[in-house]
């Protein structure tokens, strides 16, 4: 019975980790577009090499 209880927490933590990783990837995709638009706008807020 104790093994089943521990397995439940393991699955819960694995799901949490997967959702956290996907959330970070989604957030980066949004910020990447915003940063690229700021660089391409030519308003001088951000300067640097062009993003791929």
Commentary on this structure:
With 52 residues, the protein is mostly helical. It has one domain (1-42). The protein contains one helix and no strands. The protein is rod-shaped.
Helix content: over 70%
Round the Cα radius of gyration to an integer and report it: 20 Å
Q: Outline, from the CA principal axes? A: rod-shaped
The averaged pLDDT comes out at 77
Main sheet record: none
Count of the separate structural domains: 1
Distance between the termini: 52 Å
Assess the beta-strand content as a share of residues: under 5%
Classification by helices and strands:
mainly alpha
Number-wise, the strands total 0
Helix run count: 1
Report low-confidence residues grouped into runs of 5 or more. none
Order of helices and strands: H
Descriptive tags:
mainly alpha, rod-shaped, single chain, 0% strand, 52 residues, 1 helix
Short description:
The chain is built from 1 helix and no strands.
Please outline the helices and strands.
Blueprint: H1 2-41
């Amino acid at each position: 019975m104790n093994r089943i209880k521990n397995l439940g927490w393991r699955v819960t933590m694995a799901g949490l980790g997967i959702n956290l990783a996907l959330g970070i990837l989604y957030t980066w995709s949004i910020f990447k577009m915003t940063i690229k638009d700021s660089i391409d706008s030519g308003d001088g807020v951000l300067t640097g090499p062009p993003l791929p």
